[in-house]
Every structure is written in C-alpha cells, then in structure tokens.
Amino acid sequence: MLIMALDDMDLSITKLLRQNPRMPYTKIADTLGISRVTVKHRIDKMLAEELIILSARTNIKNQGGKMAMLGLEVKSEDLWDECMLKLNSLPWVLMGFKAMGKSNLRVLIYGETDEILERHIDDFRYYHCVNFIEVEILGKPIVGPY
C-alpha cells in the first residue's frame, strides 16, 4: 500500500480534530469551506493509511495524576517487538520513544497517586526484555491534555 503524505487540507482537518475530537463533519466542512463528503473521505483515507489515530485518552492535567519518564535499555534488537507488545498492553503507558544512547527506550507512564506510580515503575524492573536505567518523576503537565 502506498502511503500518501498529509496535504494542507488534511493538516487543517487534523488541527480541528485536535481542538475538538467530536467535531461533526458538517462543522469541519463549514469551517474549511469544503463539503461534508470531502471531510468524511479525507478522514476515512487518513485512518485507513494510519496517518491519524482517533482515540480517547485520560486527561491527567485535570485528574492530578503523576507522571514519570523511564530510561530503559532494550537488551537486544530481537526483543524490540516483544517490548513494544508489552508496552502497548499497559494502560498506564502514555508513550514510548526510541532513543539514542544506553537508555534506548524512553517510556512516559502515569499513576493516579505516588504509590501507584511507584508500583508501575517497579514493574519495569522485572521485565526480562529491558534493563532499568533511570527514572525521572515529572511535575504537573503544562502543555497538552496528557
């Protein structure tokens, strides 16, 4: 499958969806001066090509949750897929990033309280696919809903 890049109209649609993920196609169409059918077609195409993802996320800023950034080392190249499957299965993992250096995997995690966050951090010490390198407890989010 040939994957196309997002053009200016696609970027305008995604910007509106970031502002209000529940915005009706008609409202998007009226805002951008295009037809509702065009909006639906473009969103369907972006979803099919996995250029955008529509999902619900926890708004940590409004819940007072705690976050930490973990530095992990995936032990070997052949363990990456296993590690990614594990990360994707954990609801308290917000994001993962492939990184340069010894801690070649950065993971942003969430916990409702200090105690829960500490339990999540400790869980990573026992995953056989990674070495635990470092942890940074983060302050209150100041940008974005996570």
**What is the general shape?**
elongated
Average residue pLDDT: 86
Largest sheet: 4 strands, antiparallel
Q: What is the string of helix and strand elements?
A: HHHHEHEEHE
Can you give the helix content as a percent range?
A: 25-40%
Give the helix/strand class: alpha+beta
Query: Which regions contain 5 or more consecutive residues with pLDDT less than 50?
Result: none
Please state how the strands of the largest beta sheet are arranged side by side. Answer: 2-3-1-4
Radius of gyration: 19 Å
Percent range for β-strand residues: 15-25%
Calculate the terminal CA-CA distance, rounded to whole Å: 32 Å
Number of strands: 4
Q: What's the number of helices?
A: 6
Could you describe the 3D structure shown?
Helices cover 40% and strands 21% of the residues. By secondary structure, it is an alpha+beta fold. It has a four-stranded antiparallel beta sheet with strand order 2-3-1-4.
Keywords:
four-stranded antiparallel β-sheet, alpha+beta, 21% strand, single chain, 4 strands, 146 residues
